[in-house]
Specification:
heterodimer, A: mainly beta, seven-stranded mixed sheet, four-stranded antiparallel sheet, globular, B: six-stranded mixed sheet, about 0% helix
Chain lengths: ~120, ~120
């Protein structure tokens, strides 16, 4: 069964350091999402891609976060510099991506990266 | 604006009991979709069901059933004869058209503990 892959699964870093997370969506899925999930809360969308283009990054803290999906397949989310408040689970999801971007489609999630900033 | 409310933060039941997880949503759109996801301790969100706003028929899948009532803006989830493996956090989510494409919002989740 096709899955969304993410790495690393766990990351511990010190504040002010740079961290990067990688995501490989289900093959053929044009839409890719990055979410942040703080402990005890639901996931919150950070950025959405359709192929290599950013569709929505309105909730991405652009002063320290960046995301790219250069070839429209896998994606990298970076934080520089990391702050204590960035400790959370970072989830990647993908969906088929129809003619209407994201079009109410089911999103399939990867296992996530748990980030701890010390 | 949209909002998903899951009023039950935590629920504990004994194995084989039935349990219902509540979900209430807010939207001004006539076309929208509702979802339920399960998040076991491993962390991965597992898709359970997707339902569109025009289909109010209840659905049953094994021990799982869903009750969608547009009149009360609710999409409740019932597990019959619960098992220890059902222990997880369950999220209700709402999807509607946004300015940039799909607007997908999760509720805060309900933590279900099924005790042996």
């Amino acid at each position: 069964e096709a899955e969304v892959a993410q790495s690393p699964r766990y990351k511990i870093t010190e504040k002010s350091q740079a961290v990067a997370f990688w995501c490989d969506p289900i093959s053929g899925h044009a839409t890719l999402y990055w979410y942040r999930q703080i402990l005890g809360q639901g996931p919150e969308l950070l950025v959405q891609f359709q192929d290599e283009s950013v569709v929505d990054d309105s909730q991405l803290p652009k002063d320290r976060f960046s995301a790219e999906r250069l070839k429209g397949v896998d994606s990298t989310l970076k934080i520089q510099p990391a702050e204590l408040g960035d400790s959370a689970m970072y989830l990647c999801a993908s969906s088929l991506g129809g003619t209407y971007v994201g079009g109410y489609e089911t999103q399939y999630f990867g296992p996530g990266t748990r980030l701890l900033v010390l | 604006a949209q909002k998903v409310t899951q009023a039950q933060t935590e629920i504990s039941v004994v194995e084989k009991e039935d349990v219902t997880l509540d979900c209430v949503y807010e939207t001004r759109d006539t076309t929208y979709y509702l979802f339920w996801y399960k998040q076991p301790p491993s962390g991965e969100l597992v898709f359970l069901i997707r339902r569109n706003s025009f289909d109010e028929q209840n659905e049953i899948s094994g021990r799982y059933s869903w009750n969608f009532q547009k009149s009360t803006s609710s999409f409740n989830f019932t597990i019959t004869a619960s098992q220890v493996v059902d222990s997880a956090v369950y999220f209700c989510a709402l999807s509607e058209a946004g300015d940039y494409g799909q607007n997908f919002v999760f509720g805060p989740g309900t933590r279900l503990s099924v005790l042996p």
